[in-house]
């Protein structure tokens, strides 16, 4: 088997995920951390494919209900839906049972855990559970908390 065929086979085994969350929830930063890139803020303007297995979406697709159809269409390319919730956010953009829009497993990811207290993290987890997320991961792109577990469970690398 050639090296190219091995790489193709490896990519085929990786799960493809779509990250959905409001603007500044930490979707892009989480992608950067997973890929061991330098953490730098940049506003995602369009759907971006990262490493052939992560689909990073603009927050506006969730924030504006008229754009949510774009999430459904884009999600057809994914195996797993990642609902991303900032732990420090007072509210959520995910309506109850948001997962019912997708015929895929939904995983909840709490971000910015390093900036939040325990009550804030628990509130974020509750938002994600109400949205229909199954498994939950509490993460910090700055400290790395929870990122390895997320990557290992979803076979992202």
From TrEMBL:
Q: Which UniProt keywords apply?
A: Nucleotide-binding
Keyword Nucleotide-binding included in the entry's annotation: yes
Q: Does the keyword Nucleotide-binding apply?
A: yes
GO BP terms in the entry: biogenic amine metabolic process
Source organism superkingdom: Bacteria
GO terms, molecular function:
ATP binding
Family as reported in the entry's similarity comment? Belongs to the EutP/PduV family.
Q: What is this protein called?
A: Ethanolamine utilization protein, EutP
Organism annotation: Marvinbryantia formatexigens DSM 14469
Gene encoding the protein: eutP
């Amino acid at each position: 088997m050639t090296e190219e065929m091995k790489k193709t086979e490896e990519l085929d085994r990786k799960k493809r995920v779509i990250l959905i969350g409001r603007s500044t929830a930490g979707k892009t930063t989480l992608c950067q951390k997973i890929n061991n890139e330098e953490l730098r803020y940049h506003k995602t303007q369009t759907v971006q494919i990262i490493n052939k297995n992560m689909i990073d979406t603009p927050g506006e697709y969730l924030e504006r209900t008229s754009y949510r159809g774009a999430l459904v269409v884009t999600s057809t390319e994914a195996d797993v839906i990642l609902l991303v919730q900032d732990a420090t956010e007072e509210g959520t953009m995910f309506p109850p049972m948001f997962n019912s829009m997708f015929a895929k497993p939904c995983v909840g990811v709490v971000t910015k855990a390093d900036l939040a207290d325990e009550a804030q993290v628990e509130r974020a987890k509750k938002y994600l559970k109400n949205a229909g997320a199954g498994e939950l991961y509490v993460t910090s792109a700055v400290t790395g908390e929870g990122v390895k577990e997320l990557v290992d469970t979803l076979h992202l690398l």
